[in-house]
Amino acid sequence: MDLTWLEDFLALAEHRTFSRAAEARHVTQPAFSRRIQALEDWMGTRLFVWSPQGATLTPAGDFLRSHAEDLTRNIYRLRQETLEVAGREASAISIAATHALSFVFFPDWIRSHPQFGTLGPLNLISDTMEACEQIMARGDAEFMLCHYHRDAMPRLEASQFTSVVVGRDVLLPLCAPLEDGTPQWPLPGDPSSPSRLLSYRPQSGLGRIVTAILEKNWPTLSLQNTLTAQLAATLLTMAREGDGIAWLPQTLAHDDIAASRLVDPGHGNYAIEVQIRLIRPLRRQGPTAEAFWKSIAGGVNLSGKPFPA
């Protein structure tokens, strides 16, 4: 059995459609379907049933899912720990960071580290929130840097990870101004002519946060979803060109706001305050990673809950 089959199985159990699961796994849908079929053949039983609502786990599939997450995580951890025992662990620190933070926040943040010049090699892995979570679950990076909001928690096993706040940000609804400086797309909007919304794809951590807060706090906003993209930088460009409203990190949009290329149609009423968190496994890591964490987190108690409310 190929370990990737279990990872494909977990992706399909979460997303429930072949297209979305295949996209999350970065493979074509036909190849993804063949791997799911190969796993069911190896197991000797059906793991999913199909309906118009998508893929649903059979009792056997539900049983497998309850063990597969721990199994894949433990296998990757076993590999990492075996390498450490063999003395082949590199001194490089790997940090998985979401795209939005990789572009703007990470360079200044890491350069401000007191021991930046003596940290040794750093490996920045820039990807979507979903991909970063998978990287951490597999043990392929020592740390993850992401935006955080209590209404859209990271999808990591809470009992196995901890985190510390390393910065703060604000997600602002932004759009291009008209010639007189007023917003091209107003908020809260007009039900008869909704403002155009530029939104994030499901793999985006920012998208999870914005969706959760809009549904919880401002469900009556008149918005029409007109474009979906994976990168905040893409939405920033589209918003600047007048294509709609996007909730963008202030750290990313600062220059455009200062130059009045983007304005807040909500006048601060629909801002979403978020934290920037550095996440790590609770288990002990290599000496270089532990020294880095100690310098960042100081006396943080690792026995506490990793994602406090």
UniProtKB/TrEMBL annotation:
SUPFAM superfamilies: Periplasmic binding protein-like II, Winged helix' DNA-binding domain. The keyword Nucleus does not apply. InterPro entries: LysR_HTH_N, LysR_subst-bd, WH-like_DNA-bd_sf, WH_DNA-bd_sf. The keyword Cytoplasm does not apply. One of its GO terms (molecular function) is transcription cis-regulatory region binding. Belongs to the LysR transcriptional regulatory family. PANTHER family: HTH-TYPE TRANSCRIPTIONAL REGULATOR, HTH-TYPE TRANSCRIPTIONAL REGULATOR YJIE. This is LysR family transcriptional regulator. The lineage of its organism: Bacteria, Pseudomonadati, Pseudomonadota, Alphaproteobacteria, Hyphomicrobiales.
